Amino acid sequence: MNTSFLLFALLNPLFALLAAPLYMALIRKIKAYAQGRKGPRLFQVYYDLKKLMKKETVYSPTSSWVMRFTPYLNLSTLLVCSLFVPLVFVPEPAGGLGNIIVFLYLLALERFFTALGGLDAGSAFGGMGSSRSMSLAAVIEPTMVISFAALAFVLKSLNLHEMFALTAGKILPISPTLVLVSISLFIILIVETGRLPVDNPATHLELTMINEAMILEQAGKNLALLELAHALKQLLLMGILINTILPVGLSTEIDAGKIAVSTLLFLVKAGLLAVIIGLFESSLAKMRLFRLPAFYVMAFFFSAITILIEVFA
Amino acid sequence: MLEALMYGAVAALVSGTVLPLLYRSKNIRKTSFGLSILSSILLLGFAGMIFYTGKEPVFPVIGFLPGLDFTLSADRLAAGFILLIAAVVPGVSIYSIEYVEHSRSEARKSLQTALINLFILSMLMVMLAGNMVGFLIFWEIMSLSSLLLVMHDYSSEENKKAGFFYFVMTNVSTAFLFVGFISLFRLTGSADFGPLEYPAADLALPFIFLFTGFGVKAGLVPFHKWLPYAHPAAPSSVSALMSGVMLKVAVYGFLRFLLSVSSPELWWGVLILTAGSLSALFGVIYALKENDIKRLLAYSSIENIGIIFTGIGLYTIFKVEGLESLALLSLVGACFHAFNHALFKSLLFLCAGSVVHATGTRKIEAFGGLVKSMPATSVLFMIGSVSIAALPPANGFAGELLLYQAFFQSFSVTDPLLTVFLIIALSSFALTGALAAALFVKLFGITCLALPRSEKSKLAEEVQKPMLIGPAVPAALCILGGLFSKQLLSLAGWEIEFPDLLLLGLLLGLIYAALFLIIRSKETVPARISETWGCGIPTLAPYMEYSSAGFSEPLVMIFKSVYRTKIENSAEYFDEQESLFKKGKVEIRLLRFFEEYLYIPPAKAIDIVSKYVSGLQNGKLDSYVLYAFIAVIVLIIATGGFV
User: Fold this and answer.
1) Taking a C-beta distance cutoff of 8 angstroms, is the pair B221, B279 a contact?
2) Residue B580: what pLDDT?
3) Structure pTM?
4) β partners of residue B584
5) 3-state DSSP call for residue B196?
6) E strands, B132-206, where?
């Protein structure tokens, strides 16, 4: 373990944890503007989390240790994940942290326990959410794997840190095919964070809920942990997309000035992406559950074509 | 030294087989299982030393038939698979000490004990066999002893059918192996397993036959149908051994052949990879729909065998393409996954046995709430589910990670068609992994969580100690095998770039502990217990929960073309305009595709042929003498005796 990575291991999770709720709120705000409303304050999600932390936790008598275990595990998993995606600067890789497949399967670990937590209370809503979430996750998985394989192939490494060390410092993506991969990554971001047209994060209607249904029985601190984990997941996926398509300013050196520039630029770029996501969500209606595989195929196509172009170009 | 360990293990297993046949008492059965545990400890030393040092033991040659000797040998490949036996057997044996006592009569208890020991012994001997003759003899003993174990509860009609199905399929497998080995023997003139430095075209015939033969035994699609029949019939400890070890014996046999071939062809790899991917995908898709816990696990075994063959297929392709390091990566991935599957599948079958014993049913819809009534079994079940769903840092993930790494780096092959093929195989591999996660959320969630769905499940009680300690052994190995996967791989001498899962596990554990402590220390208001929200209905009832069928419904809808449900409807009306409905019938049934199109037609053909042949069996001695005479004449002509 080198000093560069140790510093990274301190800064990156801290930054991710602090910045993640901001973008949840920003997307809500953009959506509100698009609908002609004023929307919540930019720091509303922080206030919500603070409030939840103070509230009592309520458990169903039906529930078991699974429901109590899940929120802590989810946030710990996502915090480990935040060691995989460089946001503030790109460290020298260490101990295989940054392996893209491990990253994918850490997300699967989080999903697995969220789904079990949904079934634990015995409510029909939770079961419905778990069932839909696991089914859709299964269908998106080939797309995710192929997209990440394409990314790994273009950037010639399995390690996210090595990949982004290659793109860092450039203004534009180093290969035109990365634009194609980015389209896939954007769709994956939408699917994984449960946004329209896949899932509607603003509703509590049984016809449309997926992610919200699984955490319906969670309350208080546990809910706060789950919300924070969800926000963190969104930020990390945004980070991968941003580092791929717009790596400008990303630093590879441990230098206070450069890291500050890199972090500030990331905040701006992520803000830009959040605006795009908000507008994207506002312009689409929710798709029928069984139409979704067709939406995923689009992302699959872009990634597969990337690999083919890279192999034969 | 090495030889002595092996003789000791064999002696322990032989006495474990013979003793319960001579004396029927509980203590003898305990001793017998103790002996099988002892044998696996000896085998651990034996195989571990061969595997680590690469030094091979020397065994005496025993004359068997003129020109055919009976030899034993153990190289690193065999040692690796013997380690697999040594890892699975202790857990199963501890479990069985209590589990066999649930059998109906004293005789059956002792018989089951003896047969389990014989079964383990035969599997060990298949791996130790030095040539084809020994291999086939022990292969048959293995098949027959497992058949008797499957038929253990022979009084039920369903089990008789399952036993018969298994008997036919296992003989089909042996028949293919015989032809495969004989054609190899004709080519090389020797029954030994040696390097096969022949052009691939000459080896095509043995390859096809051996691949089919071992594929039937391993449960590759479309030869997989015996698994979902045999497993529900067999006692759970036997299922654990069959799924954990016996399927791997078939994998071992196939690898023994494939690795000795110096120059395979590309289409071999493509064929193996296709069969592997399809088995993995179909296995998990069928498992999703299953409502019988043991049948579900059987389908899941088909899936995992598919993953192993995916790795073997990749190995072959990379070897042909000259990518040595990727070939090694895939082969290690396949073998490591075989090892891991042996552990978590035996764990899951043992847990399923406990659950079935406690509730008296195999239907998943009837379980529920076991996390409260059977807490220890549920934790073990959870460890198995996390491992098999390939979640880090458990061992299931480690094996699949190796294969993913091989896939991700495989796009450097320059054949355009091959690249497209690999992209498709990778997507199917990813889909399989995610579907397996969904499957085990369903299995664990419906079985252990929420309210009990039936009276039987409500009355379930935790099982006795041996049935908890038994599965705890593979459960511990699953966790350790995952955490120390990098260290194990480098200990085995493979230089493979692999992330340190121990570091990952430690980080997860530490962050979890830190979070937990911080949040708990800030806790000001105690937690409250309050009813699950049921849309205003005062008390939650089990029938409101999500069911097993309900859980898999979205995936069944998405993959409905695979399930091939047939909807047949007919209606009668009072009037000609068809507006006044009189009566009607709608029927939805699952088309058993492989059975109806692949198994039944040849079975019917055999039925017709045997009707004619049975006419020859008239029971008269003189006609039998005539048959023998005709046979001799035909043989003389065929061998050219008259020329």
Assistant:
1) yes
2) 86
3) 0.93
4) B571
5) strand
6) none
